Amino acid sequence: MNASDQQVPFRRTVVSYVQRGERMTVGQQRAWDRHWSELGSEVTALPEGPLDLAAWFGRSAPAVLEIGSGMGETTAQLVAAQPDANYVAVEVYKPGLAQLMLRAEKLEITNLRLLRGDAIVLLREHIEPASLAEVRIYFPDPWPKKRHHKRRLVQPDSVRLIASRLAPGGVLHLATDWENYAEQMLEVCQAEPQLRNRYADEPGGWAPRPEWRPVTKFENRAHEEGREIHDLIFERV
């Protein structure tokens, strides 16, 4: 058994998210009522063991996991642009998932499934090693105060876990508009032996901004406030 086949022993004492209010608009509630039972599941309600993505999607296809889909503005466009992928979005915010289902409905998306809960629990307990084609983490909560940095999602243990779930050649794509967090992401990912930086030869090791990643209102706000966007693309060796 090699390292990627072993269960990664990772237990957190803090989480990288906060629970927000769950009040939904009328449209969001209708979308939830129409689609959640088919498209979504609580992470805590998943059967014990690996999640059978092929059965859930009704087909075998490269699996893409997005951690923290927010209100789904970017996610819906990304899913629509990748019809050949089985796209899974994990998010803790119920109205955000409902809004994503609304967006998916308008775009007639069929290759999207949603999970509500802790992404680390999902990865650790329900995603098989070496099974994902890509993991995307776009603009995670930066927890800017230094005393809160331990709550950031991108830490050595979480990146080790994510890397173990990527298939060889699979991609971990990160993006943030916080300089300090970008530097932490780069340091953590470069220190993970299961990963290599696809753009190690570029200045600073940063990846060029992919044209296919939609620009969100939050990204535009970052530009307006003078914050540079950093992308990082690492590959499972």
Structure, described:
This protein has 237 residues and is an alpha/beta fold. The chain has a single domain, classed as Vaccinia Virus protein VP39 (Rossmann fold), CATH 3.40.50.150. Helix content is 33%, strand content 20%. It has 8 helices and 8 strands. An 8-stranded mixed β-sheet has the order 1-4-3-2-5-6-8-7, with helices on both faces. The longest helix is centred in the first third of the chain and has 14 residues, at 26-39.
Gyration radius, rounded: 17 Å
What is the succession of H and E elements? HEHEHEHEHEHEHEHE
- The global form is globular
- The fraction of residues in strands falls at 15-25%
Low-pLDDT segments, ≥5 res = 1-7
Q: Tally the helices: what do you get?
A: 8
For the terminal residues, how far apart are their CA atoms? Answer: 17 Å
Binding site for S-adenosyl-L-methionine: 66, 91, 118, 141
Organism: Saccharopolyspora elongata
EC number: 2.1.1.33
Keywords: Methyltransferase, S-adenosyl-L-methionine, Transferase, tRNA processing
Give a short overview.
This protein is an alpha/beta fold and 237 residues long. The chain contains 8 helices and 8 strands, in the order H-E-H-E-H-E-H-E-H-E-H-E-H-E-H-E. The chain has an 8-stranded mixed beta sheet, with helices on both faces.
Topology overview:
Layout: H1 26-39, E1 40-42, H2 53-57, E2 63-67, H3 73-81, E3 86-91, H4 94-106, E4 112-116, H5 119-126, E5 132-138, H6 156-165, E6 166-176, H7 179-190, E7 195-197, H8 217-224, E8 230-236
Parallel strand pairs: 1-4, 2-3, 2-5, 3-4, 5-6
Antiparallel strand pairs: 6-8, 7-8
Helix pairs in contact: 1-4, 3-4
GO molecular function: tRNA (guanine(46)-N7)-methyltransferase activity
InterPro entries: SAM-dependent_MTases_sf, tRNA_(Gua-N-7)_MeTrfase_Trmb, tRNA_methyltr_TrmB_bact
Protein name: tRNA (guanine-N(7)-)-methyltransferase
